[in-house]
Inverse folding.
C-alpha cells in the first residue's frame, strides 16, 4: 500500500521522532511505500506534499495532539492511534489498515 | 451505509460508532486538546524558567528575595525571562482553543488565557479558558448567517463574539472562584503539618516522574510554580528535586552497568544526564518508551524519595524550574543536594536491579519487553 503518516507527541523531542522511525522501518518491512511527516518541537518536518497525499491509499496519524493542517487529508481514509502504539506495537497499526 | 459513505465519512463514523465508545473517544479528544496547548507552552516554560533561575541565581540574595538594584544586566535577563513566562498562560489557552476550533479559536483562547493570569486564576484558569473559548467558537461557527457576512465571520464576528463570551466568563463568573481556589490551596499548604507535607511531597514526586514532562508532570509543576507566587517555596522545592532524578538516575544507570543497556541507550544516557542537570525530565523518555513497566515505577520511586527529602529538609525553590541548575536559588541547599543524590541513587539501583532480574529470567535479552 501507499501510506502517508504523521507523528506528533506533546513535547515533540523524543516520541515524535522515535514513532516516525518505527513506522518507516516496519512499513518498509511489510512491503508498503511509506512517508512519515513529523510534527515535533521543530514544527513540520519531512512535509507531506499534496501529491504524496493524493497518491496515498491511507493516512496514519500516530498522535497525542491535534494534527496541524489537518484539512490536507480531507477525502482520504485516516487511521488515528496514540503515538505510544507506534513504539510498542507498530505492526498492529498496519494490521488496522486492511479493515 | 458503507456503500455511499465517502472515505472521510467512514473515518467520522468509526469515531462515534457506539455511545459508550463515544464517551471514551470524547475524553481522548479532550486529552488531545489539552496536550496541544501544553505542547506549545513547553518551550515558553523552559525559556522563561531557565532565564529567571539564572538571573535570580547570580543576584545577591536578601531576606526579601534577590536584589537586582546593582546588577542591571541580570535584571534585563530576569525581565526577558519573565516576559516569556508571562506569555505562558495565553499560549496555553490559545492553543487549547486552536486545537478545538482551529484558527478562529486563537483570539478567544489567547484573550481567555491572558485574563486568567490577570485575575490570578493561573494554570487551572487558563485550561478552563482555553476549553470554553474553543467550544464557544465552534458553536458560533454553526450560526446560520447570510452569505454576504460569511467572509467576515473568521476575522471579525467570531473573534469579537467569542472574546466577549470568554472575557465575561473569566472576569465576572469563573475567574474569581478559580483564583480563590488557588489562594485556598496556598493557605492550606501553609498550615499543613509534617505528615501531610510528606504525603503531598510523595504525590508531587510521583506525578513529576510518571509521564516525564507530560500533562501530569506539568500539573504538579504548575502547582509548584503557582505556589511560588503565593510565597510558598517548599512545594516547588519538592518538585524541583523530583524533576531531575529520572534522567539523572537512568543516565547514571547506563554508566555503571553497561552490559544491561543497548548501544543507543548508552548514547541516550549521556544526553539524559545533561538534561537532568538542567532540569528537563523529558531526558528519561527514551528509556521509558522502550521499557515502561520497569522504568516508570523506578523513576517514580526515585522522584518520591527526592521530593520527600527536599520537603523535610526545607529546600524551598524560588525559581519556577528544577534540577541542579537552580541550586543557587534554593533555600537549605544541602538538603536539596542530598535529596537529588538520594533520588538519583534510588532510581539507578532499582532499575539496574530490575533489569538484572529480568535478564536472569530470560537468557536472551528482550529489548521490547
Amino acid at each position: 500500500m501507499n501510506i502517508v503518516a504523521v507523528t506528533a507527541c506533546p513535547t515533540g523531542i523524543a516520541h515524535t521522532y522515535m514513532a516516525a522511525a518505527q513506522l518507516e522501518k516496519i512499513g518498509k518491512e511489510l512491503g508498503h511505500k511509506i512517508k512519515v511527516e513529523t510534527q515535533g518541537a521543530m514544527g513540520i518536518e519531512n512535509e507531506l506534499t499534496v501529491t504524496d497525499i493524493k497518491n496515498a491509499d491511507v493516512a496514519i496519524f500516530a498522535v497525542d495532539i491535534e494534527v496541524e493542517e489537518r484539512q490536507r487529508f480531507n477525502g482520504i481514509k485516516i487511521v488515528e492511534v496514540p503515538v505510544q502504539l507506534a513504539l510498542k506495537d507498530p505492526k498492529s497499526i498496519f494490521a488496522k489498515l486492511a479493515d | 451505509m458503507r456503500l455511499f459513505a465517502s472515505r472521510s465519512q467512514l473515518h467520522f463514523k468509526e469515531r462515534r460508532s457506539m455511545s459508550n465508545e463515544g464517551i471514551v473517544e470524547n475524553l481522548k479528544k479532550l486529552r488531545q486538546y489539552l496536550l496541544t496547548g501544553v505542547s506549545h507552552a513547553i518551550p515558553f516554560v523552559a525559556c522563561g524558567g531557565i532565564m529567571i533561575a539564572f538571573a535570580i541565581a547570580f543576584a545577591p540574595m536578601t531576606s526579601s528575595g534577590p536584589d537586582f538594584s546593582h546588577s542591571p544586566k541580570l535584571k534585563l535577563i530576569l525581565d526577558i525571562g519573565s516576559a516569556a513566562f508571562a506569555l505562558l498562560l495565553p499560549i496555553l489557552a490559545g492553543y487549547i482553543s486552536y486545537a478545538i476550533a482551529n484558527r478562529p479559536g486563537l483570539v478567544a483562547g489567547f484573550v481567555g488565557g491572558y485574563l486568567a493570569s490577570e485575575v490570578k486564576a493561573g494554570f487551572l484558569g487558563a485550561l478552563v479558558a482555553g476549553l470554553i473559548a474553543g467550544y464557544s467558537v465552534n458553536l458560533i461557527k454553526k450560526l446560520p448567517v447570510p452569505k454576504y457576512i460569511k467572509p467576515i465571520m473568521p476575522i471579525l464576528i467570531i473573534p469579537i463574539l467569542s472574546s466577549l463570551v470568554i472575557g465575561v466568563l473569566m472576569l465576572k463568573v469563573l475567574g474569581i472562584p478559580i483564583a480563590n481556589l488557588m489562594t485556598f490551596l496556598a493557605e492550606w499548604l501553609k498550615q499543613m503539618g509534617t505528615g501531610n507535607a510528606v504525603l503531598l511531597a510523595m504525590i508531587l514526586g510521583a506525578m513529576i516522574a510518571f509521564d516525564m514532562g507530560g500533562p501530569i508532570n506539568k500539573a504538579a509543576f504548575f502547582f509548584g510554580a503557582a505556589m511560588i507566587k503565593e510565597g510558598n517555596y517548599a512545594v516547588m522545592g519538592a518538585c524541583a528535586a523530583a524533576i531531575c532524578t529520572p534522567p539523572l538516575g537512568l543516565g547514571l544507570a547506563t554508566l555503571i552497568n553497561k552490559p544491561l543497556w543497548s548501544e543507543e541507550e548508552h548514547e541516550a544516557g549521556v544526553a539524559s544526564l545533561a538534561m537532568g542537570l538542567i532540569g528537563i525530565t523529558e531526558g528519561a523518555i527514551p528509556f521509558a518508551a522502550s521499557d515502561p513497566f520497569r522504568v516508570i515505577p523506578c523513576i517514580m520511586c526515585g522522584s518520591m524519595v527526592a521530593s520527600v527529602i527536599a520537603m523535610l529538609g526545607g529546600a524551598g525553590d524560588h525559581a519556577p524550574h528544577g534540577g541542579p541548575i537552580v541550586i543557587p536559588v534554593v533555600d537549605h541547599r544541602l538538603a536539596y543536594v542530598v535529596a537529588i543524590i538520594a533520588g538519583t541513587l534510588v532510581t539507578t539501583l532499582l532499575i539496574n536491579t530490575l533489569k538484572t532480574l529480568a535478564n536472569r529470567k530470560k537468557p536472551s535479552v528482550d529489548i521490547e519487553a
The interface with chain A takes residues 6-8, 10-11, 31-33, 35-36, 38-39, 42-43, 98-99, 213-215, 282, 285-286, 289-290, 368 of chain B (CB under 8 Å). The CA atoms of residues 238 and 307 of chain B lie 4 Å apart. Strands of chain B lie at 61-62, 65-66. Residues 14-187 of chain B form one domain.
